[in-house]
């Protein structure tokens, strides 16, 4: 019984970091990065969708004194109005979610227009099935 409980606890603890990332694009912005989406995390309700995305940078990024090489973001997408917003994010000190979490934020941001021919548009299309 103890072995079963321990196994269940390990599965529950590790599932948060076991996303299956699918490459959705690359960009030369910010020194270059690869963008991924967790397709299994897509949740749709009406004209809205939510999805986890992940950015893996080629060079160190710096924001408010924090240096990071990858970031995992939970986004909300308005599939009708072509808007998106960040719901939560985590910044990691190393590539591919490795190293320490150097910053974490969990509060919805304001809605923003999805810019045409951008990585944001690519994300929006994946989440909304366009």
Question: In brief, what are we looking at here?
Answer:
The chain has helices at residues 2-14, 119-128, and strands at 21-27, 33-45, 48-63, 66-78, 83-92, 101-105, 112-113. 18% of the residues lie in helices and 51% in strands.
Supply database-style keywords:
2 helices; Lipocalin; 7-stranded antiparallel β-sheet; disordered N terminus
Broad shape: globular
How many beta strands in the DSSP annotation?
7
Distance between the termini: 47 Å
**What is the total domain count?**
1
Mean pLDDT equals: 90
Q: SSE string, helix = H, strand = E? A: HEEEEEEEH
Q: Helical residue percent?
A: 10-25%
Count of DSSP H/I helices: 2
Q: In the CATH hierarchy, what is the architecture at level 2?
A: Beta Barrel
The CATH C-level name is: Mainly Beta
Poorly predicted tracts of residues: 2-16
What name goes with the CATH superfamily?
Surface-adhesin protein E
Structural class: alpha+beta
Main pleated sheet: 7 strands, antiparallel
CATH topology, by name, is Lipocalin
Q: Would you give an account of this structure?
A:
- The protein has 130 residues and is of the alpha+beta class.
- The chain has one domain (20-128): Surface-adhesin protein E (Lipocalin), CATH 2.40.128.710.
- The chain is 18% helix and 51% strand.
- It contains two helices and seven strands, in the order αβββββββα.
- The chain has helices at 2-14, 119-128, and strands at 21-27, 33-45, 48-63, 66-78, 83-92, 101-105, 112-113.
- Strands 1, 2, 3, 4, 5, 6 and 7 form a seven-stranded antiparallel beta sheet that branches.
- Strand 3 (48-63) and strand 4 form a beta hairpin.
- The chain is globular and about 35 Å long.
């Amino acid at each position: 019984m103890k072995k079963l409980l321990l196994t269940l606890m390990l599965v529950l603890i590790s599932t948060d970091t076991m996303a299956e990332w699918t490459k959705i694009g690359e960009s030369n912005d910010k020194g270059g990065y690869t963008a991924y989406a967790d397709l299994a995390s897509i949740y749709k309700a009406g004209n809205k969708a939510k999805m986890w995305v992940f950015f893996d940078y080629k060079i160190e990024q710096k924001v408010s004194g924090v240096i990071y090489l990858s970031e995992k973001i939970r986004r909300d997408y308005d599939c009708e109005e072509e808007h998106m917003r960040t719901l939560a994010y985590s910044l990691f000190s190393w590539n591919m979610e490795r190293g320490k979490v150097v910053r974490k934020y969990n509060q919805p941001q304001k809605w923003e227009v999805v810019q045409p021919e951008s990585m944001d548009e690519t994300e929006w299309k994946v989440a909304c099935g366009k």
